[in-house]
Amino acid sequence: MKTMTLVPPAIMSFLEEPVAIFGHGVSGHAVANLLSSLEVDYLCYDERSASGVRTQFDERTAKGHRLVIYSPRFHFDHPWLSEARQAGCHCLTELDFASLFWKGKAIAVTGTNGKTTLAEFLVYALKRYRIDAVVVGNNGSPLSRICGRIDCENVLAICEVSSFEAGALEFFQPDALIWTNFHEDHLDRYDSMERYFSDKWNLVERLSHSFFLAGASVAEAAEKFGFQLPDFTTVVEGATQADWDLPRGSVFSLLSQKENLTMARTYWGIESLPEEALRNAAERFPARNHRLAKTAEIDGVEIWNDSKATNFSATRAAVSNFKKPVLWIGGGKWRGGDINGFVEDMARQVQQAYLIGETALQVGSLLDGFSVDWTRFGSLPNAVNAAFEAAKPGDVILFSPGFSSLDMFRDFFDRGDCFENTVSNLKYRPASYSDRFPSSSLRYDASPFA
To answer: For 336-345, what is each residue's pLDDT tens digit?
Structure first.
């Protein structure tokens, strides 16, 4: 093992046996590289086969390890983690493990929606103001990868933290916390909203007495579930501070992004940084792929991509940006929640629905109750083509699924790429799709279902 001073005392004894790494994705590779730099032995495990990766983990295997480090893809009650704990292994999330090596300051950002955009925007703005900052965590940039690359003592880490990571934290202690909002989500993994809230609340419990920015919906949930907000909490009310007249092309000109801008402005004020610097950054901040943005305008039809909308509140926020009913492309894998209430809300702002995935028939049957026409499609490209065929100049086609992508795609990036590739091909479309899509009253198309 490399110089012992590099290894935090809290985990020294756990490194006497090879470390088990669960997950061979981005975070797994980052952990492996960090362990290699420390000359610590490890073995990688993943349910998906790959070179050098073991695909089985049982009681006998678990006894060969004392420490397990797992990626966000592994939920706390995953069978492998249960086996590891029963065998006496200590199990840490990638973020928790990496935080032991982080010597700089860290601000945690969490929330049901908007946390990636807010975290990335803050780092973008800080760097423009020549403050050394990095964005890490649930956005796909593991903290363990950064730890091995930079001298971090004078660097500020903006850490995006999911509820699954937050609930299992033991060592990560953020200097401050920004909790954007709290809405219905992940009820396929949580048995109640209170349990979902409680996992995120673990970040509050681990917070140093610096500052805690909480969205109004977070404060409401805390009161409902009996959690006492710390004295150093600032409750941020909706978009009350997001009153800049930003250019139409700015990410933050969208109604659904006003909450993020308000959070950023509140943080900026707490740090006594010049507001003009933040405003300049807001005008120039580039949109992240597959978060609500206009993909194209063809023959007077606006086409918007919001593949990142994997829950009801995100899709509600997306559709609120439009003043007239949209042609909505939605559906996917249900993650729990009040689907009846969601469809009722959507019915008020949808002129026609083009539905895909496992939930297509369920959503469609509910839309029948509100006299909204809908069609079920076996593929996303067919849904896009049909929506465009039906659209008239001045119409908006909105792809904001409201459900997970995992019934048909690898992830929401894959789903968004499929959408954008289909849109890019619309200019090569034949004169009419009427032979393939004869009637909007059909309940499904003739293509195979993915």
So the answer is: 889 999 999 9
